[in-house]
Input
Amino acid sequence: MNNPDAALREIDRAIDDLGATGVQMYTNVAGRPLDAPEYRPLFARMAERRLPIWLHPARPPSFADYAGEPRSKFDIWWAFGWPYETSATMARLVFSGLFDRHPDLAIITHHMGAMIPFCAGRVGGGLDQLGSRTDDPDDMAALGRLRKRPIDYFKMFYGDTALFGAWHAMESGLAFFGADRILFGTDMPFDPEKGNGFIRDTIEAMQKMRATDDERAKIYEGNARRLLRLQGFGRAS
Amino acid sequence: MNNPDAALREIDRAIDDLGATGVQMYTNVAGRPLDAPEYRPLFARMAERRLPIWLHPARPPSFADYAGEPRSKFDIWWAFGWPYETSATMARLVFSGLFDRHPDLAIITHHMGAMIPFCAGRVGGGLDQLGSRTDDPDDMAALGRLRKRPIDYFKMFYGDTALFGAWHAMESGLAFFGADRILFGTDMPFDPEKGNGFIRDTIEAMQKMRATDDERAKIYEGNARRLLRLQGFGRAS
Output
């Protein structure tokens, strides 16, 4: 990503020569946000290829939580900093006009949209008031550049179910994104058992959450088959 | 708060002379976290007085989201930075052993526990592995100082319903904290209508969320009467 031209070529090689069904991007590139102009061709290419981008958070312990401290303690940078950075990146992409340029681009956010479903009220009535909280001229102009309310763009992302068994959070994500925009994922093998734990917990949460059989089938399988264009694999014909 | 001795005296004056039923603290004091040793007597005093602390987030636009930038854009510092800072503060208080020292202390977190309910899986199986992600000796030692799993302490906080109408997030908060630890709150008057909007939206969400009448009564009124010790006010006798 620090060489966008090379990344473009690698996208094409991965898809055309290696059969990749999408690419992963981290939420920052050596401290640069993904709405920086040099990354626009990468998003355009994935929209053109009609394949998804997986958005994965990245933040080190050196990103301090308090102005008076040199680093983050007690894994706060991981537990909350990762979902925070995913959410910040989603906001930056929204306000850059990405989804006005590429309304069909699929970006799969880790951990079910990070903070967005639970903060749906802040993203809704809160960001509708962008420009009223600071005198930054960029903030003032941002809403005027978009065709829709900010929250309508946040709903254009996809989420995965990697919430480590938090069934009530999965219900919140389902209510926010809808069943067509959620894909099954577990974060295996990063559980205390080094693999099986999060798979088991996520399947249990899938069964416990309030959802129809049709919604579960989309999340387990149907959405991945559609987004990754897996025609010809297994029982999808 | 920058003069803890004076803050202690003000707590006593507010409660004894003015009839206050609790105090508010912000999530940082000029960039210092609330687990700093000089604030311990304040938490001890509120535990002794058996009245709650309202925890309110505070973060300015100058707190940048990316290492390569000087400030936060598009109200990200507000939309996501405030819940992030509430969550970071909750973690700091948990790992300081606050609830081992004061198991009955009531801390009411704004916006329904901020990121904690949605991130219940990260707080659970994730923070159970504290010490495995860095070589910081403080992180390594933190779990050993606590009597319970981290998540069990996070469940000792209280949350308010100021989620601006996100009924599915309220259900997630209810599943995490339970009906005895949630209090009705709206964030009035900070909606686009300058008052009525968030009240109306929150009441609608209270009615729409999956909860029993008994749970709703606790959230609307019963928990506040108990925590604020409002015996003799209105219909509680």
The first strand of chain A starts at residue 23 and ends at 26. Chain A is about 45% helix and 5% strand.
